[in-house]
Write a structure and sequence with these properties.
Helix content: 55-70%
Number of helices: 2
Strand content: under 5%
Structural class: mainly alpha
Length: 88
């Protein structure tokens, strides 16, 4: 299968999503052991909101990030149009 090259914006947006996902994982682990830390909880919620916004922008521009009903698809079925996130 030939590798499909995507625009630079695709890779920069995907990198932003990966970075915010990393922060969210770390904050989740921290909050599991410090559930009363209101500053960390505020930061988590801010990052979750930012991630939701970034994912929406990415999917509007390049198609779904996830399958199995976790992302919407336009017509025709978009999941096969771009490289899957783990392929880049």
């Amino acid at each position: 299968m030939e590798e499909k090259r995507m625009p630079v914006l695709y890779y920069s947006m995907l990198e932003e999503l990966q970075a915010i996902d990393f922060v969210l994982v770390e904050l989740t682990l921290y909050l599991d052991t410090h559930p009363l830390d209101s500053n960390a909880l505020h930061q988590y919620n801010e990052c979750a909101h930012q991630r939701m916004h970034l994912a929406h922008q990415f999917e509007r521009e390049f198609g779904p990030l996830k399958s199995f009903g976790q992302s919407f698809s336009g017509y025709p079925w978009q999941w096969i149009d771009t490289p899957w996130p783990w392929q880049v």
